[in-house]
Amino acid sequence: MQGMNQPNTTRRDFLKIAGLSVGALAICQRPMLARSAQEQRPNILLITADDMNCDAPGCFGGRTPEITPNIDSLASDGMRFVHAHITIAVCQPSRSALLTGRYPHRNGAEGFEPIDTTVTTLVERLDEVGYINGILGKVKHLAPPQKFKWDMVKTQQELGLGRDPDLYYRYAKAFFQRARRSGQPFFLMANSHDPHRPFHGSKQERQKFAKVLDDIPAPSRVYRDEEIEVPGFLPNLPDVRREIAQYYGSVRRCDDTVGAVIRALRESGQAGNTLTMFLSDNGMALPFSKTNCYLHSTRTPWIATWPGKIEPGTVDKHHFISGIDFVPTVLDAAGLAPLDSVDGFSFLPVLLGRKQSGRDMVFTQFHQTSARNRYPMRCVQDRRFGYIFNAWSDGRRVFKNESQSGLTFRAMQAAAATDPKIAARVRLFQYRVVEEFYDFDKDPDAVHNLVDDPAYGSEIDRMRGALLGWMKRTNDPAFEAFRNRNSRRALAKFMAEQDAKAGPKRRKRKVKK
Prior knowledge:
The protein is built from 17 helices and twelve strands. By secondary structure, the chain is an alpha/beta fold. The protein folds into two domains: 9-364, Alkaline Phosphatase, subunit A (3-Layer(aba) Sandwich); 365-402 and 432-502, 2-Layer Sandwich (Arylsulfatase, C-terminal domain).
């Protein structure tokens, strides 16, 4: 998928032509759209979590007690995907890819900048054909505003810092009622700000939200350190356990929000004609997950429900789907032509219980942190193997991201002084190596880099070849750097270009103690 094993050139050209002609026709005909035609189109509800790891929900293997009853219930009503990935593991670019169907290097939003104004968004297309569009939370992460024509907008501040399920319920209910009164189909993007840092009950939360903390509701369930399981890609240290317990409190509050939005939908009487999808924008804000290209960076707990269309309680273990496939799938479900020049393709046949070719691997990437530090990475994964190219790794450049701000990374650094294994993990996280290769069958948490193991030579070459082909097809600016990955000079030249592109660094505000 994603540029590999896609429909042939003739079919893609046809779709581009069709997309333009149908889009132009829709603009001309919008004032005369028949109400019956609008009602035949499904409503679209997209619910997103903010930094929820793929294995946090119980239905995806989470072992924390009673962690996600509402997400689990949603999964029982539809299909969950074992091999679902977002396109890039950081908030704004992930969401931009989700609503354009294009890779970050093809929509203009590689980091925390707006998409190119020449790129058409899902919201624009749905607006053309008479949908009413609404967004709850994460509003600034979809820019520029003119490319996202929302009829209803509620910001993080209006939603209890994106952490109040009752407010999500209230605004979702009002939006659904508005759509019903108007006779229009709707698209609602309901974005929880949980379980993004600061985690519930943490020192970071007390510092960052000091003035409004009393106004933010607690999760319906909080967790003790001994109730949680430390992910296999992190060491089991006391402070790591403490921070992950706090994280799971925020996961539970996100689940509370999911339940609130679903309750509002059911009470509106419109659930029967609504295609609902739930996913997370990237992995947890802890080392070796968010803002990286590891399995736990991009794999996401993706669920889809559609009464009468998607078989309840189904699990897809065969197909890879990605964030860039969301737009084509929604438009396909609505009977609309695809957007021009998208990179993804519709997985509607999979939702309807059919097999689909071209879904045997996924390509992901990373460009820039919110502080505008550039760490270009490219990755290809299939069911068994994962290969990562770190263009920035030169033994001197130090990786810095949000996940180093809490208890976990400091605990790892302290333990590294006496534990060689943890010391090696800390060094890998901070400096990386140019190439990484993992065998998920033997090492599901991607801890042992096998790139120098001759036993895997043919598989490594196969993955390198797949990545090179994808980079060429998508006009990836890192193509030449990857081709010349053994040349320090070539990588240094590429990184100089990347640093110039990043612009001035953001200064972090100091938190008053």
